[in-house]
Amino acid sequence: MAHNPVNHPARPIYRAIGGLTGLYLVIFGVLGLVETSGSELFAQDQTITVLGQGTNLGHSALAAVLGVLVLIGTGIGRNVDATLNKWIGYLLMVVSLAGLAVIRTDANYLNYTIPGVVVTMLLGLVLLMAGMYGRVGSEDEARAWRDGRLVL
């Protein structure tokens, strides 16, 4: 049995938080696409920053696509948003850790900076939280989850 709650009372708030996170990713991605237009896809120019984070065309496009996916999931609702938020949260955390590992090397293809790593990790954690607490289920599933919690 999963340890994540079903029909959490604050589920609409978590869904809104996930949507706002997706909106941030879209805004960052679009601003980054505008700022880096005309440059190479994976340019490693540390002077290009958007909202305080280093970026390039590839990083901006990735952020915009992930943000649109989160917004689509939020619009659909039900468990689609919870699943998308959870997996995109995991992806953002892995990408941020990989960015931290290669930040001062030639393998820094997404032009990460320390603020970019921190923000990406926080966005991943927020989406993961929204995904964990945003699940919807029937009353029987919610009752089974509550009963399973009460057993010591």
UniProtKB/TrEMBL annotation:
Keyword annotations? Membrane, Transmembrane, Transmembrane helix
Q: Does the keyword Transmembrane helix apply?
A: yes
* Superkingdom field: Bacteria
Is Membrane tagged as a keyword? yes
- Transmembrane portions of the chain: 12-34, 54-75, 87-103, 109-133
Which organism is the protein's source?
Answer: Micromonospora pisi
This chain's protein is named Uncharacterized protein DUF4383
